[in-house]
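Risk register update: the risk that structure generation would not scale has been downgraded. Supporting records follow, first protein first.
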Amino acid sequence: MTEQSPVTQAQAQPVKAAPALPDAQTVTQVKHYTDRLFSFRCTRPASMRFRSGEFVMIGLMGDADPKTGKQKPLLRAYSIASPSWDEELEFYSIKVQDGPLTSKLQHIQPGDELILRPKPVGTLVHDALLPGKRLWFFATGTGFAPFASLLREPQTYEDYDEIVITHTCREAGELTYGRELIESLKDDELLNEVIGEGFWKKIRYYPTTTREESAKMGRITDLMRSGEAFTDLECTPLNPETDRAMICGNLAFNLELKEMLEGYGLEEGANSKPAHYVVEKAFLD
């Protein structure tokens, strides 16, 4: 295993009194994992309700127009990484140096404000799946975010006997957020009390890298085709009778995995018509 990239963290500062942005929320924590990835937490509107796995539009004000001096909000869909019961909202983001939003967002600090449109939507929710026994989460990069929410959602463990989460990234350091979150579940007193002692034993975590050397290398789709993934996990391939799946990754990954799951006999579901698997169409890594 290669050495993981250092994690830096900014602690919460006193909350500002009056919001200056429309739909403003205050940043409470920022944590940088690599030069490409960071997470942050912010206050949650008292009236906001969402289902674990959904996303919202968040952003910042753009630069002032040189002619008019007016600013327009820069908004992007972000999966909520915190569970529905959390008092704050958590997000996991990529840094794009020339990106209209993330080039600015990566510099936020506790006490800063951001825009949050409190109208959550999304397909990666339990309501969009038929009852099953084993739930698969397939993620690339920051596509882990909605699963960070669902892994802390009691219903996940009430509905399924086993949860398999695969996370494919280019470099080992990019797995840090997901690995630390899963490890933290073991010592989460609240969840162990609410869900049941040792609930986290239902999780099968399967991280892989595609560029930097790690304990397991390869694209999850290739590892599934060869059967190596199922051998490593000591489990059978997906079956529509027992397996349900959620996909969140880059567009090429989503399309490839969709085709594979349908090859196993699984059908795509939706909020209006639950089935065997769902794909987050709003996410692009």
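Supporting record for the second protein:
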Amino acid sequence: MTTSHYADRVSHPALAVTVDLVVLTVRADTLSVLLVERGEEPFLGRWALPGGFVRPDEDLPAAAERELAEETGLPRGLVHLEQLASYGAPGRDPRQRVVTVCYLALAPDLPVPRAGTDAADARWFPVAEAQGLAFDHDHLLADGVERARSKLEYSPLATAFCPPEFTVAELRKVYEAVWGTGLDPRNFHRKVTGAAGFLDPTGATTTRDGGRPAALFRRGPATTLHPPLLR
């Protein structure tokens, strides 16, 4: 059967593809997510995750990077970005059948966002207050937060929330914000400095945490933590 004959016999439903972004940062020791106020229907005036339709000439990662740059104003490549999951339940978008590929983006304290072309506003919200979102974005956000929480146990992902050089106390505040629980400072210090390849000392110190000078570290070469830091 030729391609043209096959096309004549088989019809395919119209399908659009979007990318959505769960953009997380730690602001004032609180895990926060970037939300945009929709400036058009559907869900006019409702808060949603940033995202948009994939352009005909774009690959998925390129579309995610473009949307991230448009919504945060950050140059591409400065944010940890990974694919989270795909969502395609019928009826998730009232306009038509839409499959979205969701990405998780993590970064240190990001600047005040600017609203994109189709958004009325853009703000950081504490994750605990981000509820009742447009589309199925409550579900996407919950999946993104759980991915971040679980990866902090077995990978150096927490350093994505830190500046290039950071103290153990600053790193602990990231874990506390993402996990939503307090951690014993001495026990945490022992665990993170004992995990092979997690942290590399810079040899410098800082007093920005207050009190005595604290050692500064960079992310080490490890891609997984041994032993893991369990919640």
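The chain is about 25% helix and 30% strand. On this basis the risk owner (M.S.) recommends closing the item.
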